[in-house]
Design brief:
Length: 123
């Protein structure tokens, strides 16, 4: 499986709670609706816990500005990820998702990378 990890920073105008609520309640259903069109086999949201006790466990490991969440997307193959560049439905779906991301994600500060996963513990 090809994974895309999207390390998210929220727009400065949003609180962490507003960001996470929008991401879960508005953006997630949009992703789910478009998943078949864009060949998506996996979508997970990892929301940052803003807890002072847990934050203490991270002392010395946090960047200046921690991510507000991480989106994990997965495709069964590179072909599923790339799809047909000429598919109008796929282009429309990707455009709609990107337009929605601009409503809550600080895109220039939110890096994306692709990876292959290696399960070490768990299933």
């Amino acid at each position: 499986m090809i994974r895309m990890l999207f390390c998210l920073h929220r727009l400065p105008s949003l609180s962490l709670e507003e960001f996470q609520t929008y991401w879960l309640e508005t953006h997630a259903p949009l992703v789910a609706r478009h998943a078949p069109t864009i060949g998506l086999a996996l979508y997970r949201q990892h929301h940052r816990l803003d807890d002072p006790v847990l934050g203490g466990l991270l002392k010395g490991r946090l960047a200046d500005q921690p991510f507000d969440g991480v989106a994990e997307l997965g495709w069964n193959s590179e072909a599923d990820l790339l799809g047909s560049g000429n598919d109008p439905a796929r282009r429309i779906a990707n455009r709609e998702l990107f337009e929605d991301e601009q409503r809550f994600i600080d895109l220039p500060r939110s890096p994306i990378f692709f990876a292959r996963s290696h399960m070490i513990v768990g299933g």
